[in-house]
Structures are given as structure tokens and as C-alpha cells.
Amino acid sequence: MDILNFDFLYNILENGDEDTKKILFFSLINNSKNNRYLYQYIDITWIEYMLSKVDFIEDIYEKADIISFLAGVIYENEFEIKDIEIKHLFYLYLKTLQSGYGADVVNTLYYFLNLGISLEIIVTECIKIYRNDVFIHLFSKLPEIDKCKVGKNNEKFVSFIEQHRKMITRFDLVLHFHLITSYDYAKNILIAEDYLNKYYNYMIICADWAFSKEHSRDDLVVENILTNKELQLFVELGDILDRCKKLEVKQKADTEEELFEYLYKVSEQLKLLLKSDEIKSIRKRFFGEKDFFEIAFSLPNN
Asked: Model pTM?
């Protein structure tokens, strides 16, 4: 059944007052951000028009939304916009950040990074705006922050950011390991809180495990996020999961339904092994006598 009916939109455009049209416009902008599929329908003429008008938007939150949207479209569509205009747009965006921590800050700054604004400039300018705790949390999500070269007064913040990023990564990995190897995974998944959307059932937990002999991730040891011993235990678990996969026949051309059925069967195979000495041994060697939180929130000693 086709439920798409745009009559109410046309009615607003034809009969609505300016405030109503403005509400519709910014609702569309806000809900279209980071949507590459919709970006393809936007041409450079519209972008250039909006760039000429963005200075005059009075509401600071509306301005932030528009700038975030424009930066995303320009980057994803590879539009050629002068560097001076990108720089101007970036500094306009910085002014909006002084009013608070917007929801799209990380994505927007990442777009500006890819549009040519250096990481050093982004970090240096944002240090002036944010409280230390917000700044560290925010910038730990940006790539290659450890390579950022800033003034000596700001070096400690970059160091804190990198440590925070490593801690988040380690927590993710240890949590994933804990959930996949625990017989009481349904109970222990309550630890996850914000991760519930990602690991909402055991099939997803298993399907998302990315370690094996072919995918060892030595970089995690180099970055001092995991120890060699921990990485090897992750690989051991991945090899057990690979054995479970070989027990199930997978068609070459799966539909989505067939793929999920296959992944479910694999997860059920692993679930049968959760009380086995093999998996108990892996957990024991990983956690020792320490609890989950002691391990998850302790980076390896250098």
C-alpha cells in the first residue's frame, strides 16, 4: 500500500504563512542532515544561494543546523567551493557552538576537516569554547587526534583526548568480549546501557565480532589499547566462532532473510559452547580474578 501523500506539504507551501513555511523548511533541513541519499538531489546553485544567506540567519540554532547541512552536502557531493568560503562557514559555525554542545558537532567538524580546515585549527579554536570535560569527550571522536600539533599550552588537552579515545575503544572491546563469552549474556547486557541499540541480541553480538587469525588487529596493541595476550584471546574466540560458521551451510547469494537465519544459527552454535571448558578458559585467562569494570577501564601499562 502506498502511504506517501504530500498534499499537506503543498498546502503549507501554497497557503501557509511565513512562520509556518520556516518551520517546514528547518524541519526538512534537520531531518535531512547526514543523509547521502537525499544529498544527491541538491545542486550547487542552491548551495551557493544558501551560502550567500547564511550570515543573515538570526536564530543561532537554525544557523548551526543550516551550516551543518551545507558542510555535509558540499563534502559528500564534492562541490567546488572556494577555500575562503569554507573557512568563513567554519568560523560562523564556531560562533554557534558558543551557545552549547549541539547534537551534530562531531559530524560537522569532521566535514570541515575533510573540506580543508586543519585539525590544529579546529582543536585550537574549540579549546577556547568548551569546558575541559566536554572538549575531551567531543574530540576523542575525531580521527588522528594524537597527531595534532598545537601550542604547548594545549598539548595536555590533546593528550587527554587521546587517552579518552583509547579508553572508549577499550571499553567497547572488553564489553563486546564480555557479552559474547558470558553464559548470562541476557542479564549482563544491562551493563551496556547506550550500547543496547547496537548489541540488542546474541546474534548481533556474534555477527559483529571482528577478530580471527585473518583479522588480528595488531594496531590495537601498538596503540596501547590491548595487550598482546588480550589480543590473542580475542583471536582465539574468533577462531571458535569461525568453527561454528563452518558447521552451517551458507548459500552464495543470500537474501537478507536467509543471511539473518544463517547468522542466527551460527550464534546458536556458539551459545551451545558458552559453558564449555574452552570458552570458560578464554574468559578466565582474560579477566583473571578481576571484574569487568577493572579490566574495561584500565589501559595496559606501557
From this structure: 0.59
